[in-house]
Specification:
- With 430 residues, this protein is mainly alpha-helical.
- It is 67% helix and 3% strand.
- The chain is built from 14 helices and six strands.
- β1 and β2 form a beta hairpin.
- The N and C termini lie far apart (78 Å).
C-alpha cells in the first residue's frame, strides 16, 4: 500500500507520494529535483525518499508558505538569540572596564550586576535548547552545577580575604533565596498564568527528602556548638568529617539524579508546549558552560565592587551576604526557573531551582570547608550563627510541606516570598 500525497494539481488530483509511475519532465536532467506531470516535485539522486516525515513536512511547509525544515539543522540562531548574546558580551566588556579602568563603586556594582543577569539569560536560553536530550533530572543537575560556579568563585576570593562571616551568610542565604524567593516566584508566575502546576510527585518527594537530610547533616556541627558538647572544642575536625560524608552522599546519589526520564518531554505533565531545539547539542552545552564561567568572573568583579558599595549605601555585612551576594550568585537559577515556570514547564523549573540548594548543602559548603584548610585560607567551618540555623530550618520545612504533594499554586508561592522577606528584614541591621 503506497502513501498518497495531495499535490497542487488542478481538481485536487492525487498522485502517489513515492513518485512511482510518474513520468519525468526531463529524463536526462542532472542530479536534483525533477518536476512531475502533476506539478509535484519528485526527488533527485541523494534526496530523501518520498513519503518520509522530512519530505512530507517540506511539501506541507511549501504549500503554506513556511520555511521547510532542513535535515541536520542545529546552528540556527533567531534574532532574539543574537540580541541576547550580543548584549551579554557588551555587558561583560562594560563590567570589565568599570572594574579595571574607570567608574565609581556604585557604577561598577550596577554594571557587574547587569552582566550577571544577562549571562544568566544566556544560560537559560541554552537550557531551553537542551530539549529532550537529558530529561528534567539531568538538566536540573547540570543547570545547578554551572549555576553555582559564581558562588564558588565568590566564596574562594572572600575566604582568601578573610571574610568568613560573609561566606557563611552567603551559603545560608543561597539556600533561603532558592527555597523561598525563587521557588515562590516560580509558583506565582506559573500559577497566575497556568493555574495549579504539577511538580512530579515522585521527583518532588525524593528531592525534598534529600534536601532535608543534607541540610540537617550540614548544621549538626552548629548544634554541637550550641549545646556545648565535647565535640564543640573540635569544630574544625567535625566540620571536615561532616563535609566528607556529605560529598560521599552526593557521589552516591548522582547517578539517580542524572538518570534520564524515559517519558518524552512532550508527553510529561507540567512540561508545557516544547519546541524542537534550534541549536546543536555541542553549541547549547558550549554556550551554557561559557556563560556560566563568565558569570563566575563577573561575580568576582561584583563582590569586589560590593564592599565599597556597601559602605556608600549603608548596607550591613550580614544583609549583604545573606541577600545581595546570595541572589547575585544564584542569578542563573533565578532567571531560568522563572522562565521555565512561565512556559508551563513546571517540572523543569522545580528541578532547576531545588537542585541548587541541594548542591550547596551536599557539594559547595563541604568543598569550601575542605579547600579553606588545604589552600591555607581563613578557616571555614559548618558552625553557623543561631539565627542562620533557624532561618535555614524554617526554609527547608516550609518548602518541604508545600511541595510534598507534587503540586504548586500562586498562593503558596506568595506565602513563601513573604516568609523570605521577613527573614531578610531580620538581618537588615546586622
Amino acid at each position: 500500500m503506497h502513501l498518497l500525497g495531495r499535490s497542487n494539481a488542478p481538481n485536487g488530483c492525487i498522485v502517489p507520494a513515492s513518485g512511482v509511475g510518474v513520468p519525468d519532465a526531463g529524463a536526462g536532467a542532472a542530479a536534483g529535483p525533477r518536476a512531475s506531470v502533476a506539478g509535484t516535485v519528485s526527488p533527485g539522486p541523494g534526496a530523501p525518499p518520498r513519503g518520509t516525515m522530512l519530505t512530507m513536512a517540506t511539501e506541507g511547509a511549501t504549500r503554506t508558505g513556511q520555511q521547510p525544515p532542513t535535515a541536520g539543522r542545529g546552528h540556527h540562531f533567531v534574532r532574539s538569540d543574537l540580541v541576547l548574546l550580543t548584549g551579554a558580551a557588551a555587558s561583560v566588556g562594560l563590567a570589565a572596564v568599570t572594574r579595571y579602568a574607570v567608574g565609581g563603586d556604585v557604577v561598577a556594582f550596577v554594571c557587574s550586576a547587569a552582566a550577571v543577569a544577562l549571562l544568566a539569560s544566556v544560560v537559560g536560553r541554552s537550557v531551553e535548547q537542551l530539549g529532550d536530550r537529558f530529561g528534567p533530572g539531568a538538566t536540573g543537575v547540570l543547570q545547578s552545577a554551572l549555576g553555582n560556579l559564581p558562588e564558588l568563585f565568590i566564596a574562594i576570593f572572600a575566604l582568601k580575604a578573610g571574610l568568613v562571616a560573609v561566606v557563611q551568610a552567603a551559603l545560608i542565604g543561597s539556600i533561603l533565596a532558592n527555597l523561598l524567593l525563587v521557588l515562590g516566584l516560580c509558583f506565582v508566575v506559573g500559577g497566575l498564568r497556568h493555574g495549579t502546576q504539577p511538580l512530579g510527585s515522585e521527583r518532588a518527594r525524593g528531592i525534598t527528602v534529600m534536601l532535608l537530610l543534607s541540610v540537617t547533616a550540614m548544621v549538626i556541627p552548629s548544634l554541637a556548638h550550641f549545646v556545648h558538647t565535647p565535640a564543640a572544642e573540635h569544630e574544625k575536625a567535625l566540620s571536615i568529617i561532616a563535609s566528607v560524608f556529605l560529598l560521599a552522599l552526593f557521589v552516591l546519589t548522582l547517578p539517580a539524579s542524572i538518570k534520564k526520564n524515559r517519558t518524552p518531554l512532550s508527553e510529561e505533565p507540567g512540561t508545557g508546549e516544547h519546541e524542537a531545539p534550534r541549536w546543536a547539542l555541542p553549541v547549547a552545552v558550549g554556550l551554557l558552560a561559557a556563560a556560566a564561567v563568565l558569570a563566575a568572573f563577573v561575580s568576582d568583579w561584583f563582590v569586589y565592587a560590593l564592599q565599597p558599595a556597601m559602605q556608600s549605601l549603608g548596607v550591613s555585612e550580614a544583609f549583604a551576604g545573606l541577600v545581595v551576594v546570595a541572589i547575585a550568585g544564584n542569578a542563573i537559577e533565578n532567571v531560568v526557573g522563572i522562565q521555565l515556570a512561565a512556559k508551563n514547564q513546571s517540572e523543569y523549573a522545580f528541578a532547576v531551582v531545588i537542585n541548587s540548594p541541594l548542591q550547596i548543602a551536599l557539594v559547595l559548603a563541604p568543598l569550601l570547608v575542605i579547600l579553606s584548610s588545604v589552600l591555607g585560607f581563613a578557616s571555614l567551618t559548618l558552625v553557623f550563627s543561631p539565627m542562620l540555623v533557624v532561618a535555614v530550618a524554617i526554609a527547608v520545612l516550609v518548602s518541604a510541606f508545600i511541595t510534598f504533594d507534587g503540586k504548586s499554586n500562586w498562593i503558596e508561592g506568595a506565602a513563601m516570598i513573604a516568609v523570605y522577606g521577613i527573614i531578610a528584614a531580620a538581618f537588615w541591621w546586622g
